[in-house]
Amino acid sequence: MIRGRQQDDKARQYIHRGIAARHFQRTFVLARDAGAGADLKKRLLSIDLARLSRKRSLRPIAINEHE
After folding, report:
1. What predicted TM-score, i.e. pTM, was given to this entire model?
2. What is the rounded distance in angstroms from the CA atom of residue 10 to the CA atom of residue 66?
3. Which of 11, 31, 36, 45 is the most exposed place for a label (fewest CB within 10 A)?
4. What is the pLDDT of residues 7-65, one digit of tens each?
5. DSSP class of residue 39?
């Protein structure tokens, strides 16, 4: 879960605050073998995801043919 909160600066007067001043929350469902890392640089959040398991599995998908 990623959550952001903006604290109000009572000393400043704003003409327009925009979307950056809103609270937000975002939830992601990750695979069990996913590795994650995050960086916060210059107020920009970057999230890196990688699969830790190199094992790949192929499975056939049935195709129904209709005429």
Report:
1. 0.47
2. 66
3. 11
4. 777 787 877 766 666 778 888 888 777 788 888 888 788 888 887 776 777 778 787 77
5. E
